[in-house]
């Protein structure tokens, strides 16, 4: 048993970290292992690999991801800001390298191979960007004379421009939504809300006019007869086949023909084998993680911790919502992983980094430890 009297870094972490939030994240990770085992063997077999190729790699990526998650949760808010700056700078450099040197796949350049590892740098850029934007908004609130909001807009334009050049419009829309949400939490004026909504709508319309694959996805969503909707149709059949309690582990039919059953459509595979009950459980688990983090964030008197934890929770929640909505044919198809459930090394490690920062920012700390609050005699609060 760990005593409260101990003053080791681990004991301080143990008594300040949100254990319910940590437990929910661990349950989600274990659920990802089970669903990867259910969904990935048919995909590996179809392309001539060992049946457990993707499952083994999923577990292999899970181990360093969990280490990253725990290690980052030990950091202080100041260390989180510094790490985010470093990670963001490296990610931007890798995105530029990807645009210049990365292979073109289906008209996009999103991956670069380094030391035998395929890296999608936009994944690591997302949580780091959210933290930097939150820091700039908090500085703008504390020091109005500082052009922090303009700097946040500049960072947004830089990242979005690079993502559009790949092109990756799904990640672009995700970044815009999260940035707008953090800006709103920071006290954005209504004119900014209208302006951002107008820009987003204009950007989507421009993509529809000038980017063929974006137009194709929207047309297929609006009128399924206008193109190939095999994957989303098969996913919907999986939900229908599974019913409330599923066909049973290993009995799924859709995964035998779904090309992306282990990534974009793992949610549908889970629905077919384990039923809608599992889908509702996953939905509640994601909702709990987001709401719990937002609740802890709003208990913080440190603006940076409040904005950053809220932004990371919203990023996590919107990404999960997009994946599930695509599986249910509620929005046009978009390649977006389901956090800790879908296969993908870059995504999993980046999610672990973001969730680790969520845990760190929602730890219970005395105000004396918080850089932006100087009252050392105050009672403990969330930071």
TrEMBL record:
Q: Which UniProt keywords apply?
A: Cell cycle, Cell division, Cell membrane, Cell shape, Cell wall biogenesis/degradation, Glycosyltransferase, Membrane, Peptidoglycan synthesis, Transferase, Transmembrane, Transmembrane helix
**Entry GO CC:** cell division site; plasma membrane
Main localization is membrane
Query: Which residue windows are transmembrane per the record?
Result: 20-39, 59-76, 83-101, 177-210, 274-295, 307-328, 340-361
Q: What class of enzyme is it?
A: transferase
Topology relative to the membrane, per the entry?
Answer: Multi-pass membrane protein
List, alphabetically, the InterPro entries matched.
Answer: FtsW (IPR013437), FtsW/RodA (IPR001182)
Which terms does the record give in the GO molecular function aspect?
A: lipid-linked peptidoglycan transporter activity; peptidoglycan glycosyltransferase activity
* Cellular location(s): Cell membrane
Pathway field? Cell wall biogenesis; peptidoglycan biosynthesis
A Pfam family of this chain: FTSW_RODA_SPOVE
What is the E.C. number?
2.4.99.28
Establish whether keyword Zinc is in the entry: no
* Recorded catalytic activity of this chain's protein: [GlcNAc-(1->4)-Mur2Ac(oyl-L-Ala-gamma-D-Glu-L-Lys-D-Ala-D-Ala)](n)-di-trans,octa-cis-undecaprenyl diphosphate + beta-D-GlcNAc-(1->4)-Mur2Ac(oyl-L-Ala-gamma-D-Glu-L-Lys-D-Ala-D-Ala)-di-trans,octa-cis-undecaprenyl diphosphate = [GlcNAc-(1->4)-Mur2Ac(oyl-L-Ala-gamma-D-Glu-L-Lys-D-Ala-D-Ala)](n+1)-di-trans,octa-cis-undecaprenyl diphosphate + di-trans,octa-cis-undecaprenyl diphosphate + H(+)
A single Gene Ontology biological process assigned to it is:
regulation of cell shape
Task: Say which family it is in.
Answer: Belongs to the SEDS family. FtsW subfamily.
Name recorded for this polypeptide: Probable peptidoglycan glycosyltransferase FtsW
């Amino acid at each position: 048993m760990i005593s409260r009297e101990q003053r080791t870094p681990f004991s301080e972490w143990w008594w300040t970290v949100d254990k319910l939030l940590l437990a929910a994240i661990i349950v989600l990770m274990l659920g990802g292992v089970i669903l990867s085992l259910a969904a990935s063997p048919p995909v590996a077999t179809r392309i001539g690999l060992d049946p457990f190729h993707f499952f083994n790699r999923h577990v292999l990526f899970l181990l360093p991801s969990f280490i990253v998650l725990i290690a980052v949760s030990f950091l202080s808010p100041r260390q989180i800001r510094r790490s985010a700056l470093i990670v963001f700078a490296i990610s931007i450099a890798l995105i530029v390298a990807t645009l210049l040197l990365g292979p073109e796949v289906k008209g996009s350049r999103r991956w670069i191979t380094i030391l035998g590892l395929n890296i999608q740098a936009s994944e690591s850029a997302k949580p780091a960007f959210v933290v930097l934007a939150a820091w700039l908004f908090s500085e703008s609130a504390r020091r109005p004379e500082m052009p922090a909001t303009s700097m946040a807009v500049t960072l947004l334009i830089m990242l979005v421009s690079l993502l559009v050049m790949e092109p990756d419009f799904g990640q672009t829309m995700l970044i815009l939504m999260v940035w707008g949400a953090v800006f709103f939490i920071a006290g954005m004026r209504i004119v900014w809300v209208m302006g951002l909504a107008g820009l987003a709508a204009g950007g989507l319309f421009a993509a529809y006019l000038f980017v063929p694959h974006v137009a194709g996805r929207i047309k297929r969503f609006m009128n399924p007869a206008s193109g190939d909707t095999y994957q989303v149709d098969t996913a919907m059949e999986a939900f229908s086949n599974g019913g409330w309690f599923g066909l049973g582990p290993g009995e799924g039919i859709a995964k035998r023909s779904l090309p992306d059953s282990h990534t974009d459509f793992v949610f549908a595979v889970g629905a077919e084998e384990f039923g809608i009950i599992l889908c509702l459980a996953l939905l509640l688990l994601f909702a709990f993680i987001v709401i719990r983090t937002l609740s802890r964030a709003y208990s913080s008197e440190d603006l940076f911790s409040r904005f950053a934890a809220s932004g990371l929770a919203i990023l996590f929640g919107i990404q999960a919502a997009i994946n599930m909505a695509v599986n249910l044919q509620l929005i046009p198809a978009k390649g977006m992983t389901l956090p800790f459930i879908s296969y993908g090394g870059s995504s999993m490690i980046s999610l672990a980094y973001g969730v680790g920062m969520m845990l760190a920012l929602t730890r219970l700390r005395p105000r004396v430890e918080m850089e932006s609050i100087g009252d050392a005699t105050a009672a403990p609060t969330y930071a």
